Amino acid sequence: MIPTALFLAFPGRYLEPVPGFDPDEFTDEWRYRADPLWGLWDVARSPRDVIENGRGDCVDYSRLAASWLYHHTERPVALYAMGRVHNPPGHLVAYDGERVYSTGDVHQEPIERYCSRTDRIVVLRRGIRDAGGLPRGLWRP
Q: Which of 43, 48, 121, 141 has the smallest set of CB atoms within 10 Å of its CB?
């Protein structure tokens, strides 16, 4: 487990291979479980721990989905921290340019449509890999 703030600051450092994970099938196994102390102790659990237990919160699932995307696909990978004007706590999702990975569910829609449909606004975007398949920050000839 790592603090959520650390995961958001340096997401690429905390992505790990997750063999045997299929996000579409995992939806049936997933159960939401908030962090203890009503979110005052907010952590991003290991993807392996999330798979083994089949539960966690939006940060745990986003770390799992981003890890799978990064290590097992060539898709772009980004994390989106979101909020609602009249419904605080925040929300975190992973996005691959086509699908939104949100708390155990996979939505086949652009991030803009997901935000509109769920009445959320993007507060922060953390790119991990660009559309060219390179990790962010690497020079491309």
A: 141
